[in-house]
Design a protein that fits this description.
Shape: globular
Helix content: 25-40%
Number of strands: 8
CATH architecture: 3-Layer(bba) Sandwich
Largest sheet: 6 strands, mixed
Radius of gyration: 15 Å
Number of helices: 4
Order of helices and strands: EEEHEEHEHEEH
CATH topology: D-tyrosyl-trna(Tyr) Deacylase, Chain: A
Strand content: 35-45%
CATH superfamily: D-tyrosyl-tRNA(Tyr) deacylase
Structural class: alpha/beta
Length: 152
């Protein structure tokens, strides 16, 4: 799985002029799945994000995690994180999991975050969404479980 994490002062997602998810201080997480991903990987990524120390302490250092500051999260499924633009001018998305595989994984990822006590708002799977991100810092971090597992 892959995730693009942005620390925000607020975030929201709108579908057909209706806000379907909104948060205040926290993280907007764009998350994508590939074919071999499973529930264990979804849980691993959720735990990594919840414990990632990207919030500042009183000294201004990145010493606090989402769990420490009771951050809110907005999770949005994003198959384009698996875009391959190495050839030609149009990216392909062959590495992205099909919706019937990705949707349950993204939901499992989201529920695991909730099980850790975090408030999680959601985008709408397979919908055309307008995402509002008020990036704080700016802080933007890209995680790929294939790369993370190499270091464990």
């Amino acid at each position: 799985m892959r995730a693009l994490i942005q620390r925000v002062t607020r975030g929201a997602v709108t579908v057909e002029n209706e806000t379907v998810g909104a948060i205040s201080r926290g993280l907007v997480v764009l998350v994508g799945a590939t074919h071999q991903d499973d529930k264990a990987i979804a849980q691993y990524l959720a735990a990594k994000i919840a414990n990632l120390r990207i919030f500042e302490d009183d000294a201004g250092k990145f010493n606090l995690a989402a769990l420490d500051v009771k951050a809110e999260l907005l999770v949005i499924s994003q198959f384009t994180l698996y875009a391959d633009a190495r050839r030609g001018r149009r990216p392909d998305f062959i590495a992205a999991a099909r919706p019937e595989h990705a949707a349950p994984l993204v939901e499992h990822f989201t529920r695991h975050l909730e099980s850790m006590g975090l408030y999680v708002a959601r985008g709408q799977f397979q919908a055309k969404m307008l995402v509002e991100i008020w990036n704080d810092g700016p802080v933007t971090i890209f995680l790929d479980t294939d790369e993370l597992k190499k270091r464990d």
